[in-house]
Amino acid sequence: MITDATYCEATTKAIRAAFPSRHGRKDVARLLGVSARTVSNWFDGLNAPRGAELLRLMQSSDAIAAEINALIGNKDVNNDH
Fold this sequence. Notes:
This protein has helices spanning 4-18, 24-32, 36-43, 51-60, 62-71. The protein is mainly alpha-helical.
């Protein structure tokens, strides 16, 4: 079963891995049009992206899409975009 904590941990790990640069937080905020504070909360594991934000992250990064698909049990999903 996926809990809020499990989801938050998985997305935090995936976002950090996909945007490892020193400016990763700013890059994500710009990409999604959200505040730097929101993205900092994601990077710090305090909460996680929802809805359209998550989908846009999955579109921007195969690694994030793979992590989320693995979390829900879809390990064989084709991530072409």
